[in-house]
Design goal:
With 208 residues, the chain is α/β, with parallel strands linked by helices. It contains 7 helices and 7 strands; from the N terminus they run H-H-E-H-E-H-E-E-H-E-H-E-H-E. Helix 1 crosses helix 4. Bound molecules: S-adenosylmethionine.
């Protein structure tokens, strides 16, 4: 592994905004927790963290190099932090009902059927999100992939989630509010004139 990467991995351990256990509780000292899954360098966490200082944002990605970049940018922010782990392991960090919102931003589409289980909206992941979310909590999904989006709509429905909103072309006429935050992949795909889709779901019978 290149030395620069190794150095960054070692540095991660010393960052106070990168959590290896439930130390995020002490770091934030209270307030709502919003997760950005597949965050890479955490563009949603950083943007929403500035916009909503009363809420806390945690980016999760298995790639430490990307988390390093996000954590560096978030230095000095008291409401943004990161976890460099697999989403599958998140229940080691959070108790049931501790999270108020989950953003899944431009996740890998995994086009081959043999990889569908790895899609972050597959039946492997939705029960985890359901347990993490508190009453009234929601999952937001943004993707450029029509195939992944249609798969997700079906998957949430099959797992008994209520769909609150679907937008098939977020940037048609200009995106508004939190939807106007652009991730790295989103800006890349927009240059290729790909349409960004957005959906919002809530576990059934868990109204606000
Ligand atoms: C296509 S990138 C999107 C990054 C960013 N959200 C953006 O829009 O620019 C997908 C990211 O998901 C992460 N990822 C995929 N599966 C994961 C998993 N099971 N647990 C944690 N991270 C995962 C990858 O490491 C990668 O950084």
């Amino acid at each position: 592994m290149p030395r620069k990467k190794l150095k960054r991995f070692a540095e991660l351990e010393g960052f106070d905004n990168v959590f290896f256990d439930d130390s995020w509780r002490d770091f934030f000292g209270g307030g709502e927790v919003v997760l950005e899954l597949a965050c890479a360098a955490g563009q949603y966490c950083l943007a929403l963290g500035e916009r909503f200082p009363e809420k806390n944002f945690i980016g999760v990605d298995v790639k430490k190099e990307r988390i390093w970049k996000g954590a560096k940018k978030a230095e000095g922010m008291k409401n943004v932090g990161f976890i460099a782990r697999r989403i599958e392991d998140l229940e080691e960090y959070f108790k049931k009902g501790e999270v108020s919102e989950i953003w899944i931003t431009l996740p890998d589409p995994h086009p081959k059927p043999c990889k569908f289980k790895q899609r972050l909206t597959s039946s492997r992941f939705l029960p985890i999100y359901k347990r993490l979310l508190k009453a009234g909590g929601v999952v937001h999904l943004k993707t450029d992939s029509e195939d992944l989006f249609n798969f997700s709509v079906e998957s949430f429905e099959e797992e008994g989630w209520e769909c609150e909103e679907i937008i098939r072309d977020v940037w048609k006429g200009g995106a508004e509010g939190v939807l106007a935050v652009q991730t790295y992949y989103e800006s890349m795909y927009l240059k290729e004139a790909r349409k960004i889709k957005y959906g919002k779901w809530r576990p059934e019978n868990r109204g606000a």
